[in-house]
Amino acid sequence: MDFVWAFLIGGAICVVGQILIDFTKMTPARILVTFVTAGVVLGALGVYEPLVDFAGCGASVPLTGFGYLMAKGTLEAVREHGLLGAFSGGVTAGAAGIAAAVFFGYLAALFSKSGDKS
């Protein structure tokens, strides 16, 4: 059942994104920023953690999960290091994911053929 719930919750988050694309004039960049910001706000309020506990990767893999991870890292760093943690906690918590994205993006650039889309 864990896989089913992950699929349903992750799919529901994606449906929200598709609805925003289809029925608003928001650009994809604004939608992505909205999702990350929503994850930060919901994570800071303590609402997103129960969803992650329930749905697992269905809630932690989408961009809202990245925002949640940053909020969680910032809160933990503030508890440990005080005000300085507010500046370093989110980056520290998300460093592995960011590094992986850069690394695999670089690999994709090495092995793919670039060209114009026109």
What would you say this structure looks like, in words?
This protein has 118 residues and is mainly alpha-helical. The protein has one domain (2-111). Helices cover 83% and strands 0% of the residues. The chain contains six helices and no strands. Helix 2 (28-44) crosses helix 5 (63-81) and helix 5 (63-81) runs antiparallel to helix 6 (84-111). The longest helix has 28 residues, at 84-111. The radius of gyration is 17 Å and the shape is globular. The N and C termini lie far apart (45 Å).
SSE blueprint and pairings:
Layout: H1 2-23, H2 28-44, H3 48-55, H4 57-60, H5 63-81, H6 84-111
Task: Give the number of helices.
Answer: 6
Number of domains: 1
Q: Shape, please?
A: globular
Q: What's the count of strands?
A: 0
* Mean pLDDT across every amino acid position: 91
Please estimate the helix content.
over 70%
The quaternary state of the protein chains shown equals single chain
| N-C termini distance | 45 Å
Q: What amount of the residues lies in strands? A: under 5%
Q: Cα-atom Rg, whole angstroms?
A: 17 Å
Protein name: SpoVAC/SpoVAEB sporulation membrane protein
Keywords: Membrane, Transmembrane, Transmembrane helix
Transmembrane segments: 6-24, 31-48, 54-71, 83-109
